[in-house]
Amino acid sequence: AATGSSSDDTANTTSETTSDSAKALKSGTALVLAGGNYVIDSADDSVHSNGDVSVRDGCVLTASSGDDGIHADGTLSVSGGTITISKSYEGLEGETIDISGGTIHITASDDGLNAAGGSDSTTAGGPGTAAGTSSDGETPQLTISGGTLYVNASGDGLDSNGDLTVTGG
Fold it and tell me: Could you tell me the pTM of the whole model?
């Protein structure tokens, strides 16, 4: 932006609105972690997607978060890899959480796993939302069919505002 007192300088002045994010890895649609070693210390979500998050074999994620360890507005699926969330408000959060593999260690000051639906700024089950549905009308679900899960939570270990199914792991 230009500074000065002449009227010619005001034509060069621009105004921009920016918003800093305190999220470490952020995606608007889908985020896939299919390999690599990630060490994250973030003020907000360590991993965040406005859509889906997928963690697969080969991924090693170590995170300390001021909010969610991993957050997906849509589906959060873990089919492999190693996830260690040493500090979080909620460890894993998504409208649908599907754990079919991997090794997960979570420490959370609220819920370890939370199938709630909606974005960070909406409250599942809020006014005008039927019980058992999220803010977008979908039924949240938490499914565990494999993997190894360790949860140390001050709130709920496993929390689903809809369906909860455990068939293995």
Answer: 0.80
